[in-house]
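Thread: Newbie trying to understand structure tokens

Hi all, I'm a second-year student working on a class project, and my supervisor (Dr. K.) asked me to get a predicted structure for one chain before our next meeting. I've only ever worked with sequences, so writing a 3D structure as a token string is new to me. If someone could post the tokens and maybe explain what I'm looking at, I'd be very grateful. Here's the chain:
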Amino acid sequence: MGGRGSSNTVQILLTNDDGIYAPGLAAMERALLKLGDVAVVAPATEQSGVAHSITFLTPLTAKEIFDGSRRRGWAVEGSPADSVKIGIFEFCPQRPDLVVSGINGGLNAGINVLYSGTVAAAIEGAFFGITSIAVSLEYDEHAEFEKAADHVANHSADLGPERSRAATLQPQHSHEGSSRPSRSEIGANGHLPIRREIREANRSARAELLLGGERAASAPRRT
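---
Reply by user tm_fold:
Sure, no problem. This is what the structure looks like when written as tokens:
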């Protein structure tokens, strides 16, 4: 993961609901490192379908994970929403400019967004007024996470601190044109909507981008 951030560096918090060892998370981290400093804070185990649950009856713990000598990130014994909370207040060297959740192995579409831990993590980021993105890719044993991650990173490049402050939680219905991505690609269409759905020609890939603007909620570091 990236080094310690500075005030001039775009700070990105990366999480998911498939767990810290998921291939989609690793692909997304590699792509986002082109944009700035990436802090990986993700569930220690798979948390698919936990929606926006949080841990409050038991201690919330985290462990630093390494791949050999490379620091992978923090594994949280909790939900995706827990990971975002603790990531913002404890593990990011500065307040994140962007929260990215994914890449989820399987589409989050329709009613599934209500059950999705991937989407919930992005909503949690938006609660704190941070531009947040949930990314999912149709399940495939040979899913091209790397290509999808590069496409998401390209469309996230302009979602820096200025955009984060300018965005609002109100949906906007612009329909700016974009090319139709191939099976393994995810793209963005529209201008700062609360959720951007990107479909390829056969609707096999989709990304939900949940954007937070003015601080919708605040929480002290300690109570």
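A couple of things are worth pointing out once you decode it. Residues 11-210 form a domain with the Stationary-phase Survival Protein Sure Homolog; Chain: A, fold (CATH 3.40.1210.10). The chain has five helices and seven strands. Feel free to ask follow-ups in this thread.
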